Amino acid sequence: MNKIFIFVCLGFSFVSIGMGNGNVRAAISMKTNEVKEATQNNIQDLEQQAQKLYENGQLTEAIKVLERAIALYSSQNNSIEQLFALRNLALIYTQLEDFKKANQIVDDVINRARKIQTNQKILAQSLEVKRKNTTINWTSRTSIRNVAKCYSNLSRN
Description:
Layout: E1 3-9, E2 12-18, H1 21-55, H2 59-75, H3 79-95, H4 99-116, H5 120-136, H6 141-156
Antiparallel strand pairs: 1-2
Helix pairs in contact: 1-2, 2-3, 3-4, 3-5, 4-5, 5-6
């Protein structure tokens, strides 16, 4: 006997007609994958939009768009891509000469990247941003230590 199942999956409704739980699971899995792909495409669109805004000098708008992408990465628990997006956000704050905010973001990225320990590229790039920011602001001793640490880490990668 055929059964009719109706589900709502992340805001999308669909009907699955099948002969048991196997078809229902397959339908849910397919719909979930479609939603993930749509979200991933949306994030990539947001990052491209932020890149264009950045290139056109619309830095404040680029920050807003990039922050939305970062929030979506966070909701997906996509730590690596979130770290790259945060690094880009720090670069924008550097362009705006908000070195305090840029350094806070970079420090967060560095700490998270060290905890994950799966991607040395993001760690090295973030340390490079930190180095650039500290070269501009040589006034504190911690800046000098950060530059030394940056070069040490970059030479290992």
